[in-house]
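Hypothesis: this fold can be encoded by more than one sequence.
Test: take the structure tokens below, design a sequence, compare later.
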């Protein structure tokens, strides 16, 4: 009896290993696809129907969501196995989303190109809890020879503005079911908000047309009121930079000529101006401290310092210098959060910031 039980356990173990091995052989991981998809054209594709194109892709790069969708290619928001499926043949669009955390999703669409070919796109998303990570694969489809040729695109090359605390890029790509625009969304967890990049169809491919930064209009308003401007300053570029190293980035806005700049924090939907400059001043940075300095009138110079903790201002220090005409020297008066403090305390705080550091952020255009 014991020998039979042992034999049964061995057989069951072998079957389990074989099942796992077979599963690994049957399906491609996103890593497998990312490493080799650009090197491998797909041939023998009969037509440009969205399901035909997806089936051809799945025969080469077999994934669980595509296989589930092709097994039941009909719209079903509560499909067996916990999937939500959309199949829109007239608009050349399909999608499948695994319900729940740590799942996978896949969408695909097709555009008609101005050269008579078609552009086929697959967006493959995996979730790790609330962190989505999407990979985009694009192919030119030539009906004349039935060939899908891999094509590098701005979407497949997209890099997030900021890499999250856990090394996971929280990025999703929404392929169009209606219309032709593609929207890439970056989720900044500490903000509770996102950045949307819209890629508009130009006849051959989606091309970046605009970037919508969370609370951008509010940031423009705050900056304009700070300098009592009648006309709002329209910033041209942005960068995300983590000045206090808390894994939540601050927003750095600038005009192309860098004459107007501002640094904001976004915490749980609240926008705060941390530092700003205009054509008579400049930004300055220390470890964990942002500030600005510049002229404030005849015989007047002002420097502000704002230490940060958890993306919030700890306090605001102002060194207001005015010219003593009798002594012919600048005299400092210090204010902490609007209240005058002693010269000794003001000098001590500034000394505690250490040496100024040079920050050169990787900026991106708000409008191409």
């Amino acid at each position: 009896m014991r020998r039979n039980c042992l034999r049964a356990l061995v057989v069951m173990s072998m079957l389990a290993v074989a099942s796992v091995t077979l599963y690994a052989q049957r399906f491609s991981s996103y890593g497998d696809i990312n490493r080799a998809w650009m090197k491998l054209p797909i041939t023998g594709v009969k037509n440009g129907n969205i399901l035909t194109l997806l089936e051809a892709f799945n025969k080469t790069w077999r994934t669980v969501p595509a296989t589930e969708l092709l097994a039941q290619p009909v719209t079903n928001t509560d499909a067996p196995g916990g999937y939500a499926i959309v199949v829109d043949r007239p608009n050349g669009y399909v999608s499948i989303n695994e319900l729940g955390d740590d799942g996978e999703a896949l969408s695909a669409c097709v555009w008609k190109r101005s050269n008579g070919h078609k552009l086929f796109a697959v967006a493959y998303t995996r979730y790790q809890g609330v962190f989505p990570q999407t990979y985009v694969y694009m192919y030119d489809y030539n009906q004349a020879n039935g060939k899908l040729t891999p094509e590098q695109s701005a979407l497949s090359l997209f890099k997030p503005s900021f890499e999250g605390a856990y090394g996971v890029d929280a990025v999703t790509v929404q392929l169009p079911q209606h219309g032709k625009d593609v929207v890439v969304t970056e989720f900044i967890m500490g903000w509770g908000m996102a950045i949307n990049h819209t890629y508009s169809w130009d006849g051959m491919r989606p091309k970046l047309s605009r970037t919508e930064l969370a609370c951008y209009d509010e940031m423009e308003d705050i900056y304009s009121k700070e300098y009592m401007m009648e006309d709002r300053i329209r910033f041209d570029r942005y960068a995300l930079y983590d000045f206090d190293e808390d894994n939540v980035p601050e927003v750095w806005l600038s005009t192309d000529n860098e004459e107007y700049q501002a640094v904001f924090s976004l915490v749980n939907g609240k926008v705060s101006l941390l530092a700003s400059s205009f054509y008579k001043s400049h930004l300055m940075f220390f470890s964990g401290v942002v500030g600005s300095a510049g002229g404030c009138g005849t015989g007047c110079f002002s420097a502000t310092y704002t230490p940060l903790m958890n993306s919030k201002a700890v306090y605001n220090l102002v060194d207001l210098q005015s010219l003593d005409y009798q002594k012919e020297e600048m005299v400092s008066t210090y204010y902490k959060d609007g209240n005058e403090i002693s010269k000794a305390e003001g000098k001590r705080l500034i000394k505690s910031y250490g040496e100024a550091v040079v920050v050169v952020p990787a900026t991106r255009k708000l409008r191409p």
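Residues 216-365 form one domain. DSSP finds six helices and 23 strands in the chain.
Hypothesis status: open.
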